[in-house]
Write the structure tokens for this entry.
Amino acid sequence: MVDTTKNTQIYETWGRNVAKPVNPNVAGKVITKAKRPLLVVASELLKDEKLVEKAIAIAKKGIPVAATGHSITALMDKGIDAKYINIHSLATFLGDARWSGLDGKGSYDTIVFLGHKKYYLNQVLAGLKNFTDLKTLCIERHYMQNSSLSFGNLKADVHFEALDELIDNL
């Protein structure tokens, strides 16, 4: 089992609540138990083909995908029904409990993030943390203190091992 709860050093934070460190097997169970999870991917995904493969494997487990930035280009020809949306627009919509989701089937309860720039995503997460009741799960390589649950700061090879373990637990 990969221990992703180590090294959660915080350099800067907003508010009193910080993310609870989570191991991949628990993260997988959180996603599995969610009524309406949503995987949100971003353009950092494109920096490594292995990361794209992990995102595709997660999506193929039946999790809807929102592609932000130009990450949609990595998913278009892979059989993934990803919907393109701007991350700020998505955060605004997620804050509206009456929003019917990207697929029209209702609002989401658990938002999973992968492939984002830390400084950019933490701002979005700060808004979601302070103004919604959503559970946010960051399976990024870096600890995201404004999410509900997050992996710690990981080396690239450990991050891929953690993602494999998470996928096995979905």
Observations:
- The chain has one domain: 20-168.
